[in-house]
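Encode chain A's predicted structure.
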Amino acid sequence: MKYIRHFFLIFIFQLLLIGFSMTVWAAETSIAVIPKGSVLHFWKSIHAGAAKAAAEEKIKLIWDAPQKDDDRQAQIQMVQNMMSRQVSAIVLVPQDSRALQAPVQQAKKRKIPVVIVNSGLEGNDYESFVATDNFHAGEMGAQELTRILGGKGKVTVLRYFEGSDSTTKRENGFVAQIKKTPGMTLIDPVIYAGVGVEKAFQAAQNILNRNPDINGFFCPAETVCQGILRALQTIKKVGTVKFVGFDASDAMKESLRKQEVQALIVQSPFQQGYIGFKTAAKVLRGEKVEKRIEIPVLVVTKENLDDPKIQEDFINPDLEKWLK
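Encoded structure for chain A:
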């Protein structure tokens, strides 16, 4: 009996020691999350998802984001700053698939693991890539626009900006699918809107002025969608020229309800932030992670917009709860 009590006390002590060690580890561990930008609803959703994961993991979240989605130098500087601060890991949404390659290589040399989220990065110096299959998402946009037009029409795509891996794949998926669809004609002037709504508006006007007989538009990003919608409103062709957008900002959801936009291809930035942070935490614990983790994407229309599951997982995650 004496020996049993002795071993029992040792066992309890070991459990307490393990719990204390895990608490100290979590307290000393920090994961930086650096998205492409800070203004869009999409980036706020990624922030909220990461914050939820940080609370569950009891790991410090350090959030930093460029003011503009195309300020590559600012994002590079942020990655370098996080390395100088000796964070434990980095979750990164690279603005440019090439420009951010070198900073990630530097992080690996310093033994700071990097998890890439949403938009791809060249090379193989990251631990895992958490994202939607963006090429397939572009194909889905083409299929939905084809369905809306009854299988026949002249359609176009207004591109985002060069170097953005996620949107480039969406654009390429859309173009590839339309090219192989009988009855559909592609107008592709390869115009890049950039990250601002005003430039997207001007670029959409340019396309519409040159091609007044266009039947449908596809856009690969939130700001581009807003620019296209303004251009269609200006020439009073909202609803006449069919429009499939990407991602679900408050403005685009309202436009979908009004049928100014016929469909949105929607991913879950909240899940990307959540799973990206969780994956980084697993790497720090020495657990094996998949090199590619795919996040679902779906077509949202006026008919299924209010589906509770779609609202919770894709449209309206509880940002206020996690971004206090």
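The chain has twelve helices and twelve strands.
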